[in-house]
Amino acid sequence: MRRKTGTAILAAVALLLAGCQGSPARLPDTGSEPAVSTTVGTTAQSRTPDKPAAYRAIYDKLGMLIKEPDGALYDDADGALNGGAPTRATSAKAAEAAPAHSGTNIQVEGVQEADVIKTDGRYIYLVSTENLLIVQAEDGQARIVSRIPLRSEEPIGGTVFTGQIQELYIADDRLVLIRQSYEETEPAAGGGMGTVAGDCIRHGGASLTEALFYDVSDRAHPRLTGTLGQSGSYLSSRMVGNYLYIASSYYPYGKRDAEKPGTFVPSLLAGGALSPIPAGSVYIPDAPASAQYLVITGADAANPSRHVSSQAMLDGGGTLYAGLDSLYIAASHSAAIPGGWECVTRLTRFSTDKGVVRRRAAGQVEGRILNQFSMDEYGGYFRIVTTCERWQDYADGKPAAGFQAKEGNNLFVLDAGLKTVGKIEKLAPGERIYSVRFDGETGYFVTFRQVDPLFTVSLRNPAAPAVQSQLKIPGFSEYLHVWDGDRLFGLGKDADASTGRANGLKLSMFQVSDPQNVVEQDKTLLGAAYPYTEASYNHKAVLIDVQKNLIAFSVANAQGRQSYLVYAYDAEKGFIRRGELKPAYQGYPAWIRGLYIGDFLYLVTPDGLTAYRLADLQQTARLTLQ
To answer: Per DSSP, which regions of 396-536 are E strands?
Structure first.
């Protein structure tokens, strides 16, 4: 990376952005009021651009965060600090009559999450190696009906951006592609560290997160209806109905100029032009933890000519959780304590309504989260599970260089203002969270050191959450899924009870009908032959359908060779392994997804699609996607 003056200061800031891996930073009190702007929900391209003077307070605050004589900032990728023949047109009405089909494995019903593959029951939409493909799938057969090139190089505001599609959505006759683009720049003189984009190395440069909207009422001829973008690297997104919400993480690149707001605030892309986000849409807390922006936009897929709303917050990115009418950002930072520092998580709640995003509340809890499943909203309350961590150079006046202690795990219940109303603290000292699942008035989470305590927590009284049971078994679950009202499915790893060493993948079915006495009803050990699954860190890689009695996911052996395992579950017999499917593709990216349409299972990789009968897993078709 290129570095300019003041690199040491900026490197410390960069480490801080990576979660709890950086230097101390004192945080404001929970729910502190903004120091610069409280205006929210501004429509992005519906007003006269603000004059530079409107951004002066933002410029000054940013300058206080990163003080450099020449006004230069640390050069780094934005947010990287923190994967045919004509056919009849298919309208939304026709899609309603589509066969029963699976969807992306999501966290909240009604809140869609993007993935590399989607289906509407008649067509499969997928990110292949070089193209976005629309494949007609019917009765175990498949054929490509159209292709959209994935990579692009286009000038925006005089800058050439090179981009690739990351994920997609399908909503009736509307297809939305999420594209990550980077400024095309020359490699640094003398080599150095860069970022790979396509087949070339790009060094530094700005980044842009874009949403490309297509009308696919005629699947053979997709029609681009609009492109919207925002500064920064793609964090995550959600879609509720036709409304798309995107979060990106933006670090100002290059020199700041007080007369040019685009040099120090995020920009929005609409109509092929970039413009600075309105000054009134930028929120700055009293004591920002970093000089990195969180950028959130709302858009209407039915009218993608401009953003419905935009928000930016100078406090870094984070992990996103979304409900039907709310969006939360949880960002872990370090807070100074005597002799060292500890992890805290800053929370921000936004309301979402038909594309309008408004900042509503801010708060803070101790510890750091694992992932989006660490958070949940239910009955007007927000629940969050964290692991406490503390680093100290000395304690009680005595040196303790490099000392690190995991102090335990917490569950907090917060109200709409993100004020804590109930909590359980310091559970399982010395262990950390491996998985979390909330189910209405009950919460489940797994910690691990040598054995797997599965905690069951009653959340019926938000002011007094209570542990109901603690089941200790060897190993740990990395993903939890409510199977039915009486059972909880777990996918994770077996482990030696005395050493804690992982021994391969494990499936568990927990009987949770009596929360006071949760038991592991059934388990299957896959052994050392299968040490890895994408499902350990990506819930979208799991296909689960209780009605179809289907549990399926990809695995890899020690040599990285991938397979796709298909299971059923029987209350009397336990887990039943129905088959192991072996795709030909073993390259990079190495994702595998399974989905079903009617009575057929479709296994998809970046270069191929194979169809099987669900009844016996016999192959019915094979389609090359290159």
So the answer is: 398-414, 420-427, 432-439, 442-448, 451-458, 466-474, 476-484, 487-495, 502-511, 519-527
Cα–Cα dist 395/153, whole Å: 55
Q: What is the mean pLDDT of residues 392-400?
A: 60
Distance from chain centroid for Cα 103: 17
Instruction: Out of 257-261, 339-343, 355-359, give the one with best mean pLDDT.
Output: 355-359
Pairing of strands 309-314, 282-283: parallel
Facing residues of 182 across strands? Answer: 162, 207
Enumerate the β-bridge partners of residue 114.
Answer: none
CA triple 172-175-177, angle to 5 deg: 150
| CA atoms of 92 and 97, how far apart (whole Å) | 9
Predicted confidence at residue 461, as pLDDT, reads 98
Kindly state the tokens that stand for 68: 């450099």
Map residue 461 onto helix, strand or coil. coil
For 599-610, how does the pLDDT look when each residue is reduced to its tens digit (9 = 90+)? 999 999 988 999
How far separated are the first and last CA of the chain, in Å rounded? 35
- What is the Cα–Cα distance from 334 to 331, expressed in whole angstroms? 10
User: 335 or 480: whose pLDDT is higher?
Assistant: 480
Q: Are 124 and 595 in contact (CB under 8 A)?
A: yes
The residues near 325 (Cβ < 8 Å, ≥ 6 apart) are: 240, 351, 352, 353
Distance CA 461, CA 22 (A): 37
* Percentage of the residues of the chain whose pLDDT score is greater than 90: 60
Distance, in Å, from the CA atom of 123 to the CA atom of 143, rounded to the nearest integer, reads 10
The pLDDT-based confidence of 57 (bands split at 50, 70, 90) is confident
